[in-house]
């Protein structure tokens, strides 16, 4: 082949067109991603306007029993999982960092390190990932099944706004409960660190408390809480959007649920990174 | 502004394209007050699509759709939601909310769209369930009910806001002949007693002639016949004749994939 001075037309075509094909695929994918982001944005805007519209007519946007049902499921129901996972992660982190720092005799930095890491970063992030999997998936599957069995259309046909009736209470429940859960996550991790510090590094509980309170800043707490609110909103919006746009029966519900969890986790981590960059650049 | 039509529903030159095909091609229909218009046609001919267009769930590619004086395709979301409360819809598979019991399903429009007290709601729900003979199953969930019972609950739900128009999508599909007749009689008695107009989509002949006061036949996206039942039966249109007789010989199967099976 190499000796042949004129390459065969097929080969030439492949060489010329392969990059173009890749470019076309990339273009197509990015285009559909932009469209997706756009429709998700409008989905959020429409949900808010539909809900506000209803409130302006002097009516509650949804029944409080329905809302508290969702907060119970999303919030109270997630406490054991969030607390347990954070506790174990706190233990591991304290142990690993402690053994390294012990070599330099600075193991008393461990309480502050874990406290800052969790209140500001890991608490909200871990809670976000866990809730995307635990609650996001259930929202998508539930709404997806309703969509497939024409229940959503029936609600719309009755003259009830499905976004206000189905999406708003779910999204608001996640939005409101997310900061509480990430606080619980941080507390569980700090508690685990206190145990490890006492058992392995001889730091008394009173001293531990002092170290934590001295190293924590109000802004760490506020950053974590702000982030949590945003994560709650994002997970809720993605899960409900994916649920209401299910196509293709039972298999469609499955695909959408997977996609909901994957998208939510990716978006949460991506948003967290962006938030950190902006935060560090503008508020050093 | 187009002038206000005196009909309950009017479709004027409606065309509807889906990405891969044209579903409706110039459909015009009028529904007079207290009519029970039966729309017939093959499966997939766009019958149910017409109901979705009347409800404003789908938008026509071309043409106008009126419900009373409202042009459905031009209404803003809030107004459309208000107009929809005057229309009841009974879905082919009932579309009851599976996680709520019968009472909650029927009460839903009242709870969400009116300012009635719980006692008033309870009274109306009982009354409507009584009307369709489902009062004994008030606290059962939809999965515990048979197809016919679900359809009756769905009908009670459609009636709960006292609509002026009820749309039925295949009311007798999937039901045995006896229950199917029960549903048909229920439709007749309810529309007569409650003075509502109805549009019924079906492809079952017996049911269609039992219920309809007018019949329209949809074929290849167009209304090819629209008449009172007795005239409809006498129509000399070959498609209508083949549809009525259920014969495999005739224009309906020509060139269709189903034709292969009959050879």
Describe the structure.
The complex is a heterodimer of chains A (284) and B (263). With 284 residues, chain A is mainly alpha-helical. Chain A has nine helices and no strands. Chain A starts with 8 loop residues before the first helix and ends with a helix. Chain B is an alpha/beta fold and 263 residues long. Chain B has helices at residues 47-54, 77-84, 102-113, 118-131, 147-159, 177-194, 205-211, 229-234, 238-245, 258-262; strands at residues 9-17, 22-31, 36-41, 62-67, 70-71, 87-90, 165-169, 197-201, 214-219, 222-227. Chain B contains ten helices and ten strands. In chain B, strand 7, helix 6 (177-194) and strand 8 (197-201) form a beta-alpha-beta unit. At the A-B interface, helix 5 of A face helix 2 and helix 3 of B.
What is the CA-atom radius of gyration of chain A, in angstroms? 24 Å
Strand fraction of chain A: under 5%
Helix-strand makeup class of chain B: alpha/beta
Chain pair forming the biggest interface = A-B, 19 and 25 residues
Strand numbers in spatial order across the main sheet of chain B: 6-7-8-3-9-10
- Mean pLDDT rating of chain A: 91
Helical element count of chain B?
Answer: 10
What order do the SSEs of chain A take from the amino end to the carboxyl end, as H and E? HHHHHHHHH
Biggest sheet features of chain B: 6 strands, mixed
Assign a percent range to the helix content of chain A. Answer: over 70%
What is the 3D form of chain B? globular
Largest sheet of chain A: none
**End-to-end CA span of chain A:** 60 Å
Uncertain ranges of chain A: none
Topology:
The complex is a heterodimer of chains A (284) and B (263).
Chain A: H1 9-56, H2 64-74, H3 79-102, H4 110-148, H5 151-157, H6 162-201, H7 205-215, H8 218-244, H9 249-282
Chain B: E1 9-17, E2 22-31, E3 36-41, H1 47-54, E4 62-67, E5 70-71, H2 77-84, E6 87-90, H3 102-113, H4 118-131, H5 147-159, E7 165-169, H6 177-194, E8 197-201, H7 205-211, E9 214-219, E10 222-227, H8 229-234, H9 238-245, H10 258-262
